[in-house]
Amino acid sequence: DAKTTQPNSMESNEEEPVHLPCNHSTISGTDYIHWYRQLPSQGPEYVIHGLTSNVNNRMASLAIAEDRKSSTLILHRATLRDAAVYYCILRDKGLRDFGNEKLTFGTGTRLTIIP
Amino acid sequence: GAGVSQSPRYKVAKRGQDVALRCDPISGHVSLFWYQQALGQGPEFLTYFQNEAQLDKSGLPSDRFFAERPEGSVSTLKIQRTQQEDSAVYLCASSLVLGAGNTEAFFGQGTRLTVV
Question: Are A102 and B56 in contact (CB under 8 A)?
Answer without folding.
Answer: yes
